[in-house]
Amino acid sequence: MSGRTRTRTCPERTCVGCRERAVKSELLRTVADEGHCTPDPRGTLPGRGAYVHPVPVCVDQAVRRKAFPRALRVPGPLDVKALRHYVEQAQGCDKAADSSV
């Protein structure tokens, strides 16, 4: 034996908003669907995906930098209303869970 320990590596992705690398499970996958940027929390929707932290700050940075159309390789701007709504709902659930503890 070589003496090396085998550790399982976790896949990492880069957030298109803040450009920080994070474990894939900490990021939210988004896909382009008919001109909309659709959240894909299960990671099963077909097509190219872009990853973003599920916080409004990173979503706003990605929109400001026009990162979603570039990462998803689609021409023109994408509507991110559904993504913002999803992130805001997730933040509301997190805040409710934190206050109940």
Describe this structure in words.
The protein has 101 residues and is of the alpha+beta class. It has a single domain (11-94), classed as YlxR-like (Hypothetical Cytosolic Protein, Chain: A). It is built from 3 helices and 5 strands; from the N terminus they run E-E-E-E-E-H-H-H. The mean pLDDT is 90. Residues 13-77 form the YlxR domain. It holds the Pfam family YlxR. It comes from Streptomyces coelicoflavus.
- Supply the number of structural domains: 1
Helicity range:
25-40%
Q: Mind telling me the C-alpha Rg?
A: 16 Å
Just name the CATH architecture.
2-Layer Sandwich
Count of strand segments: 5
Pfam family, one: YlxR
Protein name: YlxR family protein
Organism: Streptomyces coelicoflavus
Keywords:
3-stranded antiparallel β-sheet; 101 residues; two-stranded antiparallel ribbon; YlxR-like_sf; YlxR family protein; globular; alpha+beta; YlxR; Hypothetical Cytosolic Protein, Chain: A; YlxR_dom; 35% helix; 21% strand; single chain; 3 helices
